[in-house]
């Protein structure tokens, strides 16, 4: 299934880029973002309703150019992610691991301090905080108008583990939502390595149908590798 493989690659790239987030239940609506790295430009749309979120994205450049849309539905109450495979009319459910907030804070020693700069982004006033480590500088513009930012899944689609980035831990701890996040190497005048920015916000009611697979989609089950290996080993 070529389309499934490309979807998994894109899905994994999104987690590596650390852009899986949900908004607090006080917010309902649509948030449009754009993620830019050296290899890809990826527009993203977040549909939020309580603890449900739908993410739609499609790479417009780099190695993922031409791949189909990626659609992911997250239920943070049930700790589940549903991946929709539009070309094949299939979906896959992935259980989210429990986040360890205390360990995340220990893993992320970067301290964020306000720079004093403020800017209006997508119609909302944001304040800049800057974090600096030995290898990286992170500039994050935040607001409290959109509720709390939370990591929905620090791991990958195959159950792998990935630590949350320092700016994610900071935003969640302070009840901030990032409207713009820029990473650079920690040196004078370093170019941007990545940028994630909110481009539009629509505070409106969202239909329930957005947050579940379409009725004509078939559920795809990942094969049990242990059972498959048993059948290939003599005497098993």
Could you outline the blueprint of secondary structure elements for this entry?
Blueprint (H helix, E strand, L loop, with lengths): L1 H15 L4 E2 L5 E10 L3 E9 L2 E6 L12 E6 L4 E6 L4 E6 L5 H7 L4 E10 L2 E9 L3 E8 L6 E2 L14 H8 L3 E9 L6 E11 L15 E2 L5 H8 L4
Parallel strand pairs: 7-14
Antiparallel strand pairs: 1-11, 2-3, 2-13, 3-4, 4-5, 5-6, 6-7, 8-9, 9-10, 10-12, 12-13
Task: Based on the model shown, name its key terms.
single chain, 236 residues, alpha+beta, outer membrane lipoprotein receptor (LolB), chain A, 12-stranded mixed β-sheet, two-stranded antiparallel sheet, 4 helices, 14 strands, globular, disordered N terminus
By secondary-structure content and strand pairing, the structural class works out as alpha+beta
Give the strand content: 35-45%
Give the tally of structural domains. Answer: 1
Shape: globular
Q: State the order of secondary-structure elements, H for helix, E for strand.
A: HEEEEEEEHEEEEHEEEH
SS summary, helix count: 4
The rounded distance between the terminal residues' Cα atoms is 29 Å
Largest sheet: 12 strands, mixed
CATH topology: outer membrane lipoprotein receptor (LolB), chain A
Strand order in space, largest sheet: 8-9-10-12-13-2-3-4-5-6-7-14
What is the gyration radius calculated from CA atoms? 19 Å
CATH structural architecture? Clam
Q: Would you report the number of β strands?
A: 14
């Amino acid at each position: 299934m070529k389309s499934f493989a490309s979807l998994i690659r894109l899905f994994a790239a999104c987690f590596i880029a650390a852009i899986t987030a949900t908004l607090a239940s006080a917010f309902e609506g649509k948030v449009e973002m754009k993620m830019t790295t050296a290899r890809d430009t990826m527009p993203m749309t977040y549909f939020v309703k309580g603890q449900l979120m739908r993410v739609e994205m499609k790479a417009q450049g780099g190695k993922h150019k031409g791949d189909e849309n990626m659609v992911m539905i997250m239920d943070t109450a049930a700790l589940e992610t549903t991946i929709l495979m539009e070309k094949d009319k299939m979906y896959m459910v992935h259980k989210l691991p429990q986040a360890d907030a205390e360990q995340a804070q220990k893993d992320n020693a970067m301290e964020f301090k306000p720079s004093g700069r403020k800017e209006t982004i997508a119609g909302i006033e944001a304040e800049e905080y800057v974090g600096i480590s030995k290898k990286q500088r992170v500039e994050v513009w935040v607001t409290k108008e959109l509720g709390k930012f939370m990591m929905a899944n620090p791991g990958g689609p195959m159950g792998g583990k990935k630590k949350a980035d320092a700016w994610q831990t900071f935003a969640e701890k302070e009840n901030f939502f990032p409207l713009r996040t820029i990473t650079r190497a920690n040196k004078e005048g370093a170019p941007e390595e990545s940028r994630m920015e909110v481009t539009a916000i629509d505070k409106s009611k969202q239909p329930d149908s957005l947050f579940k697979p379409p009725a004509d989609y078939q559920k795809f089950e990942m094969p049990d590798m242990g059972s498959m290996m048993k059948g290939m080993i003599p005497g098993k």
